[in-house]
Amino acid sequence: MMHRLSRRSVSATLRAATIRYRIAVASPISSSTPITDSAVGSDNNTRWYSAINGGKCNTARHSAHLNLKSGLFLGSRYESTAAASDSANLPQPPAEKYEYQAEVSRLMDLIVNSLYSNKEVFLRELISNASDALDKLRYLSVTDPQLLKDAVDLNIRIQTDKDNGIITITDSGIGMTRQELVDCLGTIAQSGTAKFLKAVKESKDAGTDNNLIGQFGVGFYSAFLVSDKVVVSTKSPKSDRQYVWEGEANASSFTIREETNPENLIPRGTRLTLYLKHDEKGFAHPERIQKLVKNYSQFVSFPIYTWQEKGITKEVEVDEDPVEANEANQDEKVEKKKKTKKVVERFWDWELANETQPIWLRNPKEVTTEEYNEFYKKTFNEYSDPLASSHFTTEGEVEFRSVLYVPAVSPMGRDDIINSKTKNIRLYVKRVFISDDFDGELFPRYLSFVKGVVDSNDLPLNVSREILQESRIVRIMRKRLVRKAFDMILGISLSENKGDYETFWENFGKHLKLGCIEDRENHKRLAPLLRFFSSQSEDEMISLDEYVENMKPEQKDIYYIAADSVSSARNAPFLERLLEKDLEVLYLVDPIDEVAIQNLKSYKEKNFVDISKEDLDLGDKNEEKENVIKEAFGKTCDWIKKRLGEKVANVQISNRLSSSPCVLVSGKFGWSANMERLMKAQTVGDTSTLEFMKGRRVFEINPEHPIIGELNAAFKSNPDDEDALRAIDLLYDAALVSSGYTPDNPAQLSGKIYEMMGMAISGKWSTSDVQHPVPPHTETLEAEVVEPVEAGGQK
């Protein structure tokens, strides 16, 4: 049954639904209150609003959620739409604005337990806050020197009580007034440093440089990562009173009171007292604090002192034994000597924890090589000097300072070529250590051996300041760091001391070859750094530039062969004609070499050519001679192909052989013999891919060799001769081995060799009359003479 509605009825109903929606939104929503979708508006572009997220939904998609008890919309779809269109002309009630509210204890729990992944960063954050307070004071004291009258020294002091699990951090910075305590510590995510920076930028004197660190307004709350309770006692030079802020973990409120105990008064600054959780009391050990300061904050521009136990060795007198004293008195001639022993006297005192100065902030012209080397050894715990260093400052769109090093030796295990997550690059933001755990953000995997520090004032970090966000700025930084790293390596290669680059290549040559595979953009920088053995330099590696200089005038390509050793490459049959023509061939003896060269493709407009593959062009083609040879041996090639069947794709006349009868070359786009060997050795190799890539092999014969000449004669005289056919099989197997391939059936190959050896040496050293030796110790019997007798008994 169809229900027809009047326009007035529909409009009234929609207005009632709208009022119900506004009441639902205006009412407070608790986590246990059930929320349903409500309808708002009724024009052709009707939208559905959710009281939970305020998001817009398509009407057609969510119309199923309507549940009006009167069933008013069961009639015609077109009439309902017309009614909705009419109601759009009615005046809408004014929208009411509400501000977001937050459950403070829940928000604090998220900040403390979800924002930071490493608990030990609490000390970094609190020291950074103290450094900012000192920086603010130093900046303001330029115009108001009276701010420094109470305490001239600007420093940070950290004292621990490991028995009670208490850490106290005191700075002599700007301090806070009562209102600033409420604003800065009582308002989550409000950064006093950010507010101060904004005021500085808006002032007329904003030309001065500053080193303020904070920016998010949540660093202070990292104290609750390890603390149950935090007490902040602070004295601002703007106020005559000292105030104490006190808050507890998982609490939604805090207290502020005036400090009345004279023993707790400080002249100026802030003192944070952390009461550690039971499981985190290990942070209260002085040695742990010292280590964290050196790791995260050793380059903060203000001195940081930690309360450390020290010892002084002293000599003290020892009481004499009464028996020995009586013996000494009896012998008056013996000179008496007081007995002493060494004891260590323990005491507590302040120790400077950040004595190492950030070398990257100095002018490179003023830093000596010894200072660079010393900084390298201290920062990265190395015992040997680096091969090279680069100190530079980048300005413009991205500003940062950096000092990079090329180590002299590779790390133990050499697994960093596989694992890109090394700790070789230390990232600082305003001299505060952020992270050394990167996965290719600043350096690609093949340059993971480069060590150094990078310091910037405006890196895109996440709120916890632990993760470097991927952005355009990071990509620009990466390009510039990679470029500087290449400049360093190139400097080593051009050095007069060739031994330095030999050392570098021995340790990190594989990394650069990996770069040829992974980094197409830097091929031009990588190629001049590569080194290989060659047919004309088997003892000393040469560069591609040296190869190009030694090329023949008519030579168009760079020739190479891949093998498992220099000896195997030298004796490969593929080189015979090239060596006769005095053409140099690169030996690729490292497993990664062949893939690296294939990715380079060319160098200085000269293509890389694998001499073990088909269609080798040596630039000496003689079409007349080739036609004559093809006419003489063309049918023999077809005969050999028929015998070998699917083992080879084709049989051709070779232009690369001179002394060998034949060779097996791989297809132009397939794997070489060396690559096939490597792929077979892979643990997780794909058998189907292996069969596909090794499928095309070309059998090349040398028409000038006597064996091929005999086979040609055999074909013409008796192509079905079994000996000739067996000779073809053996020739193929021999070519398989000499070309670097692995025989499918080594036992069968051995049997063929033994058979041919038997035929070759049969009867060569032996005769048919064999003299058997007489057995020893045998008696010689005399023969009996018998007279001939005639028949009938007569002689």
Describe the 3D structure.
- This protein folds into 4 domains: 104-306, Heat Shock Protein 90; 359-493, Ribosomal Protein S5, domain 2; 530-610, Rossmann fold; 623-761, Heat shock protein 90, C-terminal domain (Four Helix Bundle (Hemerythrin (Met), subunit A), Up-down Bundle), CATH 1.20.120.
- Helices cover 34% and strands 18% of the residues.
- Helix 12 (498-518) packs across helix 17.
- The protein is elongated.
Give keywords.
795 residues; alpha+beta; Heat Shock Protein 90; Ribosomal Protein S5, domain 2; eight-stranded mixed sheet; elongated; disordered C terminus; ATP-dependent protein folding chaperone; ATP binding; stress response; transit peptide
